[in-house]
């Protein structure tokens, strides 16, 4: 009798853990991304000796603030089962248009809202094509990408330097304690606030719950009486607004705008969101995970810079990680379907 009870007791000991994993399966990729980030930090510190310094950690947020913002908007879209390939081009166009207005003397208090509205207009256009004309999100956002990039070149073929103090202040100002300690810039604060607001919206609002429901099963969401059409449109509008805001932040970061800014950024954004645990099929994922995914991307890029290697290795590394996390997602989805 005792020999039979021992295995049962052992199984019961792991029962709570198994129940937690089954109920929180959507968090597994997020924890995996967090574990990967910690592993990269440890390996970088062991190899370089000066990797985990306040300057390097602060620069991760400073250099990738625009990518955090883009990843937030992309998370909303991918959660619905869609995709937005236009974010990099929209960021470039809004940056070029805003820089041209600033050059002509238009106040920044007018320019920034205009940039956000332009981003929202692109997002709304994609949403309308997807929802009302039954165009695949890939095609609709690809068309918007070409349109935005073309408009960026129409504004100017050359770089436009930004000298407006209010815009440059967003990047040049460093909020720091003791010398040599961690610091943050207004662009970093904006990025963190966008992440926080988006996380709260997805977790605690009807709009957020509808986004998850659409990605899980759009037909079921309609039968439940949820505002599917409005929510899908808003998801793309959120992505567009984030692209416009990223245009502001990136313009402040570089001090200028160029039509070729953001080339390939949409792929970096999608990779960061997927590495952070958001399912490409939709219905599962978290903004916090996307933030971790951006940190993973930025840390890999920094480590390769420390090594003095070509930045093409960043693409290779992120591509391999993306493949790995997509495979992990497929395994999780398959297990969920079996259950």
TrEMBL record:
It is found in: Cell membrane. InterPro entries: ABC_transp_permease. It comes from the Bacteria. Pfam families: BPD_transp_2. Keywords: Cell membrane, Membrane, Transmembrane, Transmembrane helix. It comes from Homoserinibacter gongjuensis. The chain crosses the membrane at residues 27-48, 68-98, 110-132, 181-204, 233-258, 270-300, 312-333. It is a multi-pass membrane protein. Its main location: membrane. The keyword Cell membrane applies. This is ABC transporter permease. The lineage of its organism: Bacteria, Bacillati, Actinomycetota, Actinomycetes, Micrococcales.
């Amino acid at each position: 009798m005792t020999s039979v009870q021992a295995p049962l007791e052992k199984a019961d000991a792991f029962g709570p853990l198994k129940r937690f994993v089954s109920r929180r399966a959507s968090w597994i990729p997020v924890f995996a991304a967090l574990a990967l980030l910690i592993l990269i930090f440890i390996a970088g510190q062991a190899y370089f000796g000066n990797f985990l310094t306040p300057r390097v950690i602060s620069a991760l947020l400073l250099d990738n603030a625009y990518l955090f913002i883009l990843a937030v908007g992309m998370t909303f879209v991918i959660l619905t089962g869609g995709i937005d390939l236009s974010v990099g081009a929209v960021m470039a166009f809004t940056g070029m248009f805003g820089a041209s207005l600033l050059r002509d003397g238009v106040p920044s208090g007018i320019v920034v809202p205009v940039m956000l509205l332009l981003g929202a207009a692109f997002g709304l256009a994609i949403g309308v094509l997807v929802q009302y004309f039954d165009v695949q999100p890939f095609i609709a956002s690809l068309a918007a990408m070409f349109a935005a990039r073309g408009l960026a070149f129409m504004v100017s073929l050359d770089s436009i330097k930004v000298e407006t103090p209010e815009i440059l202040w967003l990047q040049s100002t460093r909020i720091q304690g003791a010398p040599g300690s961690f610091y943050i810039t207004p662009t970093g604060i904006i990025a963190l606030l966008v992440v926080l607001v988006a996380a709260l919206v997805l977790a605690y609002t009807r709009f957020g719950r509808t986004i998850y429901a659409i990605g899980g099963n759009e037909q079921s969401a309609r039968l439940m009486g949820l505002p599917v059409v409005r929510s899908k449109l808003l998801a793309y509008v959120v992505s567009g607004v984030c692209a416009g805001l990223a245009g502001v932040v990136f313009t402040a970061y570089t001090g200028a705008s160029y039509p070729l800014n953001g080339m390939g950024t949409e792929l970096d954004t999608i990779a960061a969101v997927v590495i952070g645990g958001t399912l490409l099929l939709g219905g599962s994922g978290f903004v916090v995970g996307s933030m971790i995914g951006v940190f993973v991307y930025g840390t890999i890029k920094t480590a390769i810079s420390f090594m003095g290697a070509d930045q093409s290795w960043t693409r290779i590394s992120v591509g391999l990680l993306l493949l790995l996390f997509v495979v992990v997602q497929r395994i999780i989805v398959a297990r969920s379907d079996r259950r």
